[in-house]
Queue: 2 jobs
Job 1
Amino acid sequence: MIKVAQISKSYQRKLVLDNISLEVPKGQIFGLLGPNGAGKTTLIRMLNQMLSPDAGQIYFEDQLLNEKHLQQIGYLPEERGLYKTMEVRAHLLFLAQLRGLSKQEASRHVDHWLVHFEIQDWKNKRIAALSKGMAQKVQFIAALVHQPKLLILDEPLSGFDPLNVELIMNEIKALKEKGTTIILSTHNMKSVDEICDHAALLHQGQLLALDSVIKLRQAHAKGRIFVRFKGNMLSFANALWTDFTLLEQKESTEGVFECILQLRGTSTVNDLMRSLQAQVAVEHLELLLPSMQEIFIDLITQKDKQHD
Amino acid sequence: MLVLGPLVLLLSLFAILKAADQGKQELKVLIADPGQIMGHRLMAQEEKNVHYYFLDDYLEIKEFDKAKAYQEFDVLVELNEKVLNNKKCFVFYRDQFSPDIRIQLKFQVEKRMEELIAAQHSSLTEAAFRQIKQGFIFDFRDIKDPKNEAKEANAWAGFVIGSFILFFVGLYGMTIFRATVREKSNRIVEVLLASIRPEQLMLSKIVGIGMVALLQLLGWALILTLGLLFLQQTVFLDIFDPSNWGQATPQRLNPLSSLVFEQLNLSFLFIHFLLFFIASFLFYGALFAVLGARSGADADGQQFLLPLIFLVAFGIFAGIYAVYYPNTTLSAVLSYLPFSSPVLAFITLAKGASIVDYTTILLSLLVLLACALILLKLAGRWYKQSILKF
């Protein structure tokens, strides 16, 4: 859907994006991650053609990104604003028409979304009269009212209460189901674990990681294993011998234990299974994968150490 | 801005004062005094740069202008025998001279006259007389236009109309500025820029607000036209129209009403008003938009406005200068300068422009338009660079 090829950008001699290349697959949710100042907003602004790269190209459906594509892109910026004196419906109509919809189309789409988000009773109220959460919903509608093929959401969950976070998360999933490609820039790593298919991690203008979320988690797995078994804890510990380290243990029900182990040296999960087979009855065994939060922190910390 | 503001003001003041001081600094003044009232004498301290000569006879203006014998003189002061009673004298000049020398000349002649009046017609001392005296009127006129047909009143009327352009441009320019700052500070600009280019956003704002300004101007024009027509039909009747004979009122003789109803071609002026307004609005609108884009917040931006307000004020001061000194090189330059050309064009138009003058006005309009287009192009770039810096 989107291909970013060797993009670089500097502001006043400071390199903000350094030779970034990535691809956003069609119909997927792509997490654009990174600490503050990593270059995410700059990249997003380039996708929206607010900024031009100093070097490199961006492709939209295999075409060089151009002005025509703007109507197929929806954008919810992190710092959001609305005209406070305008009425909700009029404001949405204005933004929808700005995105290329005819007056009739805009009217139909706006009314649909107002009903969908249950704010139709507020359509004639001024923006200034809305609560923060309500205004956030209006902004969310404004980003997708023209049914874009690509939806760029910069911190879409910030400012929402837990109920509305759930609502927005479900909406994002539903949009994906309908075929919309979504770029999600967020610091909410739980949401990345939950809904993102792919992710890219930017730090100081450089791309630290890029892959599908599952592959990233597998690649950064630290050899930790969860085991639930029925039997004797002493026999279990003896079976581990020197190839595995017992990190945590607890008895969940009588005679049933749950443990977390760490693989050591060249030992594998198969080695573990063989060792345990004769000693205890294994009910569940699972290779523990790190969360995106852990991967994020690890990679950034490593990079900063290298830099120092 | 704390330092830059007063500095710009100081420089502007210096430029204005310097400009007002323009004109000949040393001149020869011939005083035609057929009654020998002054007795070939002036006050004791004669200024070094003004030299006075006396002629004990009448002198025709044309003779002073053309005759070889008088070419060395720059100024003719005409004192007739009644000058001590009517207290008015005419001063004819070949070229404009500085206000400073005007004051010197008035001082010399007036003080000598007062001396004479006090001595000949009163038992008062000269000092006591000065306390109760009436001022002398000095009527300064161009030797090429001795009857003052250059229509100073018309020039002032043109100045007022031209200043209105700058006033409206300033007023609506502020609206552009505030709208840009508001969009930037509440961050909706980022949503807008995801749909349109910054240059489009800037231009649409200038054009949109310009249309509102034009609409208001047209409203004003309509109301004023109807009002003037009503006044023409009721209060200021045309005394030359036989149907109004017997009803004519003294108001018709009022020089201001005569200026408005007879001397100014209002519809002609209005068309030019629109043209100059559009060009000036594009020119200044681009500057206001850029300043808005560079400002972080409304209060923060006020300081950036000062230089722009000075520029608008400069246009008005330039107009005042051009009313007094219409034929100087500086006035010619100011008539092409985009900041002042609207005011100067209307001063000329209101006086009744010749073909040459009108060509200058059209050229100045073209220069203003060209500058506006260049500035819009540059402003688009500056706007783009600034608008996303929060």
Job 2
Amino acid sequence: MIHNKHLIFAFRLVVGGVFIWAGLLKITSPLDFAQNIKNYQIFPHGGSFFLALVLPWIEIICGVFLLLGVFPRASALLVSLLLVVFLCLVLITIARGIDIDCGCFGSLSRKVDFRLIAIDSLLFFLALNIFFSRAENFPFGVRLS
Amino acid sequence: MHTKKILWQIITIILISCLICVGVNFSLIRKYFKGEFALSFISSEKYPAISFITLAEAENLFVTQNAVFIDSRERDEYISGHILGALNIPYEDRDSGLSLEEPGLSLQDTLVVYCDGSECQSSIQLAKLLDEYGFKDIRVFFGGWQEWVDAGLPVLNYNDSQ
């Protein structure tokens, strides 16, 4: 794991920025995002609807908290868990041969493919590094002592 | 690791998200519980041309020949069997451009879009594209091909066309 203070700060900027951006693009059209979730053919109709309403806000708050250093480890862990779920969804979708847009970035979404797996894996790696980094890397954050 | 503390912080993040979500989307949630999105997540304000029809309504439009039927499934599925007279505009071709002019469609036509059945989504997705394209009356036949076949209504199968 990487413990360099500047690198961890850069990771927080990248992961936080991407999640804020992804969340903002989704909250503008929650019904389209609900349809995107339903297209995965895994979640029930109602589940897709409520997930589409809550998930973008979780992404935005995690992103903002990562940038500000508030609950940084919890935010990084939550982001990591979300990314694991996203990765599983993408893999299952590819394995089932379903041709859909991922819904990850609202109307700017790309198709579910192996490049998406690479992007999610990279974000997962960055988020894990934030989670396991030392407390002094979060000078403005809420310490967990 | 301060597992318990991190767990509480995660719960806090989720609770804050839920509170903001309910506050921001209150009207949408109310519409959901009124049953507005029972079939699909299509807002009538955003897609005014789209409506949903049952088998009986689809059959009526078929018999009276008041609508153009559009099969949104893949080419192979269409060839192996489709509603008699239906045109094929596969949703999967969306990136290479839908051939909407080719079938001689008019924006004023009533379109009945269908795919496999209630589990498939390509009919809804195609209906959205058609709405954005400017078609004024798009009806999604949710029961789709399966319901049509089960009802014994007219179809054109691969063997018939040979």
